[in-house]
Structure formats: C-alpha cells, structure tokens
Amino acid sequence: MAKRITKEERDQRIKELVAAMLAEEAARGADSSCETIDDIEQAMIRISNAVAREVGIQKLEQHTSQASDACACPQCGEAAIYAGRRSRELISSRGNVPVSEAKYRCPACRRDFFPSDSPAGS
Length: 122
Ligand SMILES: [Zn+2]
Known about the structure:
The protein is an alpha+beta fold. The protein has one domain (7-26, 37-117). 40% of the residues lie in helices and 25% in strands. The chain has helices at 7-27, 37-64, and strands at residues 71-72, 79-92, 95-106, 111-113. It has a four-stranded antiparallel β-sheet, covered by helices on one side. Strand 1 and strand 2 (79-92) form a beta hairpin. The chain is elongated, with a radius of gyration of 21 Å. Residues 73, 75-76, 78, 106, 108-109 line the site of zinc ion.
C-alpha cells in the first residue's frame, strides 16, 4: 500500500495540478486581464471536469485490469476461458471515458461474462 498522504499534502498536490492547468490555458492565449466572473466559472467547470474524467480513466483501468487468466463462471462456478476484450465508452456527466474489459466464456453455460461488471475484489 502507498503511504497515506495528509490532507495538507493532498491540498498541495491539487494546488500544483490546478496551477499547471491554468498556466497551460494561459499559454494557449487566454487573456486573464479581460476575464469575467462567468469566464472564471467556466474555467472552474472545465478543469473540474477534466480532473474528474481523469480520475474515472485511472480508476477504471485499475478496476478492469484486475481480471486474471482463470476466472470462475458467476453462474455455475466452472472455470471460464478468456475470450478477448470488449472496448466501450462509459458515458459520464463529466465526459466519456474509454473502458476496456476482459471477456470470459463459460463452456458449460455457453455464456460470456465480464468480471469487471462485479465489484472489484469479489
Ligand atoms: Zn457457467
């Protein structure tokens, strides 16, 4: 397990991340001298969406990469066979997030299933 970070350390990381994103926007030519409060609100939404989407991508990657070679069928408990991956897009309110899931086929039930559909670690 990674060492737990304190709230102060986390706040500092967020500050650094946001400062970097704002600097990047400024570099793209956004002139902050004629910015309105609305513009600032839009920037808040844009940046929080980008961060939320990235959280989704990283957490989903973690979640979907946990499936192993051998996987028991959720219906009969027989060993199922790895049958490739399914790619789809998760439609979230913070933008679409690509998901790639391992697919398994149970020879006994003749059905496909996705272990990533069940909660992580189950
Ligand atoms: Zn089965």
